[in-house]
């Protein structure tokens, strides 16, 4: 059975800070020092962003779609085609969809390559939230 991949607790907090307000089925509880343990809610009608003690835990795809639709950042995960030595794996291209701006996340992070596409996507989402999105737009 294939399971959904959710953003990490750290990325969920960044999304919340940047104004992510989309209904999700997963959430992270926040009680003092949050543990970052993921919980799933059986009701898709519950919006976790409006609770004082929990934050939304979107899937990687939901976060990527929110970045594209709300902030115009398109993330593309690419397989390293020459895959040799320590440089095999996945890298990321981030493109601003409403301009000609394009950058490779691997260049921004000193040629980082990731073992899985999910790891690369998580890093790209985090990079966008920390470096490209200012405040809650």
Could you describe the 3D structure shown?
By secondary structure, the chain is of the alpha+beta class. The chain folds into two domains: 9-58, no CATH class; 63-132. 30% of the residues lie in helices and 19% in strands. It is built from four helices and six strands; from the N terminus they run H-E-E-E-H-E-E-E-H-H. It has helices at residues 9-17, 60-71, 105-108, 117-132, and strands at 26-29, 39-40, 54-56, 73-79, 90-96, 102-104. The protein has a three-stranded antiparallel β-sheet, with helices on one face. Strands 4-5-6 form a three-stranded antiparallel β-sheet. Helix 2 (60-71) runs parallel beside helix 4 (117-132). Residues 42-51 have low confidence and may be disordered.
Q: Round the Cα radius of gyration to an integer and report it.
A: 16 Å
Low-confidence stretches: 42-51
| Quaternary class | single chain
Give the CA-based shape. globular
Secondary-structure-based class equals alpha+beta
Main sheet specs: 3 strands, antiparallel
Biggest sheet: strand arrangement: 2-1-3
Helix and strand pattern: HEEEHEEEHH
How many individual domains?
A: 2
How far apart lie the N and C ends?
37 Å
Helix amount, in percent? 25-40%
Please name the defining characteristics of this protein:
137 residues; three-stranded antiparallel β-sheet; 30% helix; globular
């Amino acid at each position: 059975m294939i399971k959904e991949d959710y953003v990490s607790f750290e990325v969920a907090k960044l999304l919340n800070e940047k104004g992510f307000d989309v209904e999700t089925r997963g959430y992270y509880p926040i009680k003092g020092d949050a543990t970052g343990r993921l919980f799933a809610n059986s009701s898709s009608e519950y919006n976790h962003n409006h609770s004082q003690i929990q934050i939304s835990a979107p899937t990687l795809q939901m976060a990527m779609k929110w970045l594209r639709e709300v902030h115009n950042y398109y993330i593309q995960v690419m397989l390293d085609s020459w895959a040799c030595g320590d440089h095999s794996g996945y890298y990321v291209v981030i493109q601003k969809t409403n301009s000609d701006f394009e950058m490779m996340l691997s260049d921004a992070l000193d040629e980082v390559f990731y073992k899985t596409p999910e790891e690369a996507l998580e890093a790209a989402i985090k990079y966008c939230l920390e470096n490209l999105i200012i405040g809650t737009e």
